[in-house]
Design goal:
Belongs to the transferase hexapeptide repeat family. InterPro entries: AcTrfase_PglD-like, Hexapep, PglD_N, Trans_hexapeptide_repeat, Trimer_LpxA-like_sf. GO terms for molecular function: transferase activity. By secondary structure, the chain is mostly beta strands. It contains two helices and 24 strands. The chain folds into two domains: 69 residues, Rossmann fold (3-Layer(aba) Sandwich), CATH 3.40.50.20; 114 residues, Hexapeptide repeat proteins (UDP N-Acetylglucosamine Acyltransferase, domain 1), CATH 2.160.10.
Length: 200
């Protein structure tokens, strides 16, 4: 497996891949000063060369991850930690990482290049959009829809049957009790919209 981005996020993915007995062939990064990361070689800037293994974009920022994914013409892999619990009726699409202790319940779909972070809980019949990030300890109750690129902050809770639009930001520790429209930032308990930028 190759990784794109020699970051702290990459370090966690490397641990997951090690637990899967999947070697990291190398990492790509635009910063020429970075030569290695936790013992793996950093190969410099990706120049479009053909790869002999799949690649995961190891960048935590949702917007940057989306821009990189839309430019690359490679085969994308996925990484699912051994300590994660993933229902055999759920679906995890390419490029996505499911971290240690995360739970993904029945009939849930997690889109491309998403992050289900440490001990996040995604209950039955949820839909998590491409490039979304469910942060550590966040909870999506049943039948929650999370749009493309949305970031659910650490420890946030979304009650059942709600829809959170695309490219939203839900603050850490927030409790979402109603639908949130696209491009909104919502914080608090209950979560209140403090910003909505339709131009993003």
């Amino acid at each position: 497996m190759y990784l794109f981005g020699a970051s702290g996020h990459a370090k966690v993915i490397m641990d997951i891949l090690q637990s899967m007995a999947m070697p990291v062939t190398g990492l790509f990064d635009d910063n020429p000063a970075i030569k290695e990361l936790n013992g793996a070689s950093v190969l410099g800037k990706y120049m479009g060369q053909e790869l002999d293994a799949e690649l995961i974009i190891s960048i935590g920022d949702n917007g940057i991850r989306a821009r990189v994914a839309n430019k690359l013409q490679v085969q994308f892999g996925r990484a699912i930690a051994k300590s994660a619990t993933v229902s055999n009726t759920s679906e995890i699409e390419e490029g996505t990482v499911v971290m240690q202790g995360a739970i993904i319940q029945a009939s849930t779909l997690v889109g491309k290049h998403a992050i289900i972070n440490t001990r996040a809980s995604v209950d039955h019949d949820c839909r998590v959009g491409d490039f979304a990030h469910i942060s550590p300890g966040a909870v999506l109750c049943g039948n929650v829809q999370v749009g493309e690129g949305t970031h659910i902050g650490a420890g946030a809770i979304v009650i059942p049957n709600l829809t959170i639009g695309k490219w939203c930001k839900i603050g850490a520790g927030s409790v979402v009790t109603k639908d949130i429209p696209d491009f909104s930032t919502a914080v608090g308990n209950p979560a209140r919209i403090i910003k909505c930028n339709q131009n993003e």
